[in-house]
Specification:
It is a single chain. By secondary structure, the protein is an alpha+beta fold. About 20% of the residues lie in helices and about 35% in strands. The strands form 2 sheets. It has a 5-stranded antiparallel beta sheet with strand order 1-10-9-6-7, with helices on one face. It has a 5-stranded antiparallel beta sheet with strand order 2-3-4-5-8, covered by helices on one side. α1 (about 45-60) packs across α2 (about 70-80). The radius of gyration is 16 Å and the shape is globular. The protein starts with 6 loop residues before the first strand and ends with a strand. The relative contact order is 0.21. The model has no long low-confidence stretch (mean pLDDT about 85).
């Protein structure tokens, strides 16, 4: 983690037991204007799931300056006729200090501060299907806020034991690794982010 970054990030990722690759893909980037992180989980697991999730992430890389709404719409269009994917996107505008996020399908998200934890309810559906309406949540972000995004390989029981408000987000990943099962029933990705300044 660089001292110049406003968002610190740490990631846990593991393929479903018996598969050679993980069907989840993720991307993040920070500029002087903002930050974007996306997590896509291709339907199913293995190589075909990876292809769909990679299409979504490549699309977001190419259009990282677009709004969350635009990114979802572009990614949905790219997946028409292919195996679908679910998606979580988290963006921060450093000028306004507003974060925007949306999760479609079974990508989970939690916002945690020292005082409270809020689980985000995802939009129903998946990308690659007919166009649906979806909500994008926007709120002010303050230093010390943690944002955790995860694919459906992360089990609720495992989540209940993770300490979301750790000041060092690497500790969130370490605690998850410690309590999570070695044998994965599904592709698993957990991304921990912290707004530090």
């Amino acid at each position: 983690m660089s001292e110049n970054h406003k968002i610190e990030i740490a990631v846990f990722q593991k393929a479903k037991t018996g598969k050679s690759c993980c069907g989840d893909s993720y991307f993040y980037t920070e500029t002087e204007d903002g930050f974007v992180c996306a997590l896509a989980d291709g339907l199913g697991s293995g190589q075909y799931a990876k292809e769909s999730s990679a299409i979504v992430i490549d699309t977001i890389k190419e259009s990282a300056d677009a709004t969350v709404e635009q990114l979802v719409e572009i990614a949905n269009t790219k997946l028409i006729g292919k195996r679908g994917a679910v998606l979580g996107i988290f963006k921060v505008d450093f000028h306004t200090m507003i974060c925007s996020f949306s999760t479609i399908g079974n990508i989970g998200a939690v916002i945690a501060t020292k005082d409270k934890k809020k689980r985000i309810v995802p939009n129903i559906g998946y990308l690659g299907s007919s166009q649906r309406t979806f909500k994008v949540i926007q709120e002010e972000i303050e230093p010390g806020t943690n944002f955790i995004m995860f694919s459906d390989g992360v089990k609720d029981l495992e989540l209940s034991n993770v300490y979301f408000s750790h000041e060092d987000i690497r500790d969130i990943i370490k605690s998850y690794e410690h309590i999570s099962e070695e044998e994965r029933q599904d592709d698993t990705t957990l991304i921990a982010m912290r707004f530090v300044k």
